[in-house]
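Dear Dr. H.,

I hope your travels went smoothly. While you were away I took the liberty of generating a structure for the chain from your last submission, since the lab meeting agenda had it listed for discussion. I wanted you to have the full record in hand beforehand rather than looking at slides cold. The sequence, exactly as received, is reproduced here:
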Amino acid sequence: MSEIKKFMYVNRKAPYGTIYAWEALEVILIGAAFEQDVSLAFMDDGVYQLTKGQDTTGIGMKNFSPTYSALGDYEITKIYVDKESLEERGLSLDDLQHLVWEDEDEDWAEKDSIRLVSRTELADVLAEQDVLFNF
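The corresponding predicted structure, in token form, is as follows:
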């Protein structure tokens, strides 16, 4: 039996204005559906993808941000957010959606998916991955 590879999807772009964020989310969900070991990283303007209360009516694009709340259903439980990227944009963890997953080993207890990490810690996590996808 082959070893399961670790796939990291690195999100660096703002959610709207380009197709990168939407395409990343689609690829992430497809990978998880095929039982890949999926992790996500949000850094630079990519941290805006997870902000609460996104309103896209003024730009005429569909708001896909509610889809992030389904990640736990796809067993995507490792979402890394670069702390410095948040701080540089005047954001904190409180500005982000509350993303959770249910741990069946602990009677379906809800656990946080977002892990706030420093750039150094994120670099260490990235170095542990087998495959990196940058968006």
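Two observations you may find useful: The longest helix spans residues 20-33. Residues 28 and 53 are 22 Å apart (CA to CA).

With kind regards,
E. W.
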